[in-house]
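Lab notebook: predicted structure, single chain.

Context: the supervisor wants predicted structures on file for every construct in the current expression panel, including those that have not yet been purified. This is the next one on the list. No modifications to the sequence; it matches the entry in the shared construct table.
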Amino acid sequence: MIRHAHGPTTDRYIDFIRSRATTMHGTLTDDSIMLAIGFYLIAINCAAYLAFLFDKARARQGGWRIPEQRLLTLALVGGSIGAIAGQKLLRHKTRKEPFRTQLLLITMFHGTVVVAITATLVIVGPHVASNWLRTVLSEA
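Prediction complete. Output recorded below exactly as produced.
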């Protein structure tokens, strides 16, 4: 198995996707890939929001706080919607610089990725894109 330059958490997630996205014949299906990605995005966005909620509560109590780098990492690995929701709805870290700008840049990056994926699906078609994703996941 080829291992790329990413951490053990990413390796476990790739293994999880591969294990959940296989059929009886051992091939990845479009539906299972989309389901795994959807579950991941829901989980990471909930985790980001809950981290902001916990950090806000700890800020009020004057206790141990979640480091800003960890909050930004949750946003970067896919939880930018949950992080922005936590920031806006909880009014937490709305004026803190450079955190605010960094979170905005991460969100803009994710928006660019979504536009690029959408454009790719429109230009090359969903079957070509899913075959490419299937190849990438099987080599990871």
